[in-house]
Amino acid sequence: MAGKFVFRLEPVLRMRQRAFESHQRIVAERLRAIGREQTLMLAAREQIAEQVAIARDQRVGRIDMMDMRGSRAHLAFLNRRVAECAQRIVAHEHELEHERSDMVAARVAVRALEKLKERRAERYSQAIERREAADQAELALQMFRQGKDRLTVLD
To answer: What's the whole-model pTM score?
Structure first.
């Protein structure tokens, strides 16, 4: 009986799998960062809507100019925050594109080694089957010859 199949490139395969998993974590972290930025942007937009609603309610009657300036300054701050969040999201998405392409390349490298391992394992099992078939044929031939030799001795 032959020994178990050993893939000599197993350490390389494990190393490439770890690299792929690292790329997956990087992509996941980038997606979380985009989600955080989108949440911040949404919160700022909601605050803008609230400030606009408050400003509309305060239009009735006497207008306090200091309050109006403060409200406008706060709106300007919130609008800047929305713009900054949008810029960071665009930057994150650009980086995400590169990180995803790196992840795909790492996955291709892993898959290539996995396919190689499968092919070599299949080739190994076929070689073992051929060897076992040859051994069985040799054993059958020896048994046949022994049986034939016995028949000639008895004659």
So the answer is: 0.73
